[in-house]
Amino acid sequence: MISRRTLLGASVAAVAAPVLLTALSRSASAGTPARLTVDLANNTTSDTVYAYVLGLDLSQGNQWAFLQSDGSTLYHPPSPAAPGAALGADCAIALPARGAAARAISLPYLASGRIYFSVGSKLTFLVNPGPGIAMPSVSNPTDPNIATHYGFCEFTYDTTQLYANISYVDFASTPISFNLQTSGQGTQVVQGLGAGGLETVATALRNQAAADGGDWAKLIVTDSSGAALRVLSPNTAISSNPALFSGYLDSYIDQVWTKYQSTDLVVDTQASWGTVTGRVSNGVLSFPGTGSFAKPSTAAVFNCSSAPFTTGNDEMGNLSARLAAAFNRTTILGNANQPDGENPSLFYAQPRTNHYARVLHQTSTDHLGYAFPYDDVHPAGVDFEGRVQSSVPTVWTITAGGGAGGGSTPPPSSPPPAGGSVSAFTTIQAEAYSSQSGSQTESTGDTGGGQDVGYLANGDWLGYGGVDFGSGGATQFQARVASGAATGVSGLVQVRLDSPTAAPVGSFSLASTGGWQTWRTVPTTISRVTGVHTVYVTFSSGQPADFVNLNWFTFAAS
After folding, report:
1. How far does CA 557 lie from the centroid of its chain?
2. Three-class secondary structure of residue 130 per DSSP
3. How far, CA to CA in Å, does 127 sit from each of 92, 189, 219?
4. What span, in angstroms and rounded, lies between the C-alpha atoms of 474 and 495?
5. Rounded to the nearest 5 degrees, what angle is found at the Cα of 418, between the Cα atoms of 417 and 420?
6. What is the pLDDT of residue 217?
């Protein structure tokens, strides 16, 4: 399957040749139509919005091509004698006023393409010898578009299919959403950030900076009124100011290196190379017969492309992608089976993580969209990249401005309390117990995969040390449970503090949910708990038979 990272890159430098012309996954098809109807809708707060459609013309030797302002005619910029030449044609496609009917354009076969949306004013594209296209840049302070509110999506459309995705890899700005209608394959929707979502993201990053002292607020670029114009990704910001986030992830990276001196790290390349196993020796993470990785810096983790990571479409490139994804999501310390053993509920759960990616995923209406270069790495059965893809597309609607509502502001992740405690308000995996009696772990069929704790019966318990409820405390317990217990078999799931025999602070009863892998989330009220405790989840039943499996739990303030 095509991935976002193989599409067009953004640079202030002229692109004189295809960055990469990707071979899409081929499917048995009579071929896509030579022109695809694309409806462009305006849901911004402005009546002045322009679209720019560009890519590599597959019928003209992969020359750069723009759609002109009529939304149909192709324009191939000629090679100028000197850098910085004007584009030479009007390629600003005016969208209708906000809330009006969408404008239809006719999309030809283009690869490694982008569709830009600018709000309030037009964009400037320059042409260099080659010809090469100088794209708008958010990292060059002298770029003619630096004060313009704009965003883009990425696509490739060829004879086999349409692929498109929403990208936040470089920055987040104008919300964009997709609706793709197909012939016989249903409708695909990517909702992206809602209306007002950019300000929600900015507020969350300011809060995160206040919580952990990181440089998250420095990612926010404001306009003359003080409103958020865009939010840069950490890798984009670091490219302009290498001092940002210096050492931010170093402690976590050091812990990873220490763990894998004595533990195997298993990585599925999810390709023909299969699964490889590595360990750290003499300061290097080595995969025998494949290659090795020096300890990465924080900047290398955020950009995913500087040493020790590589970007080739080979075995080391595939390993790099999976390692970089696990570092950005801060799951590699807890999961030695990458990415197959990943549980998405644990992504970005560490106090120091890629909070830019965390906040964007949490704020986006459907939690989808590329937030770092390898955000398409995932275990089977889930995805996070915010893509539409079909061999039989009929109408592709792109809305600038997003849908209704920007979502609530995601709370910041706080530094861990003294003693290595874990917040009670994060998702705590059942198999992460520090002590237990009577349980067994097993592979789970619940969303996100990984393991659950099963075979739980009367008298069994699980202990979790150093759970921090803070000064405000928690009054609710939520657990993800399943039961295939026989008729007449039921029991209580109880919460106790500091001893498995202490009086319960709360509980709920459970009978069969329909199967041992038929999961449901059950909330219950508990007595207010503050401070740091060892939490015991205990199981009580009047019958000796197993009655519950537990995948995860969390606490809430209300």
Report:
1. 27
2. coil
3. 16, 35, 29
4. 12
5. 80
6. 97
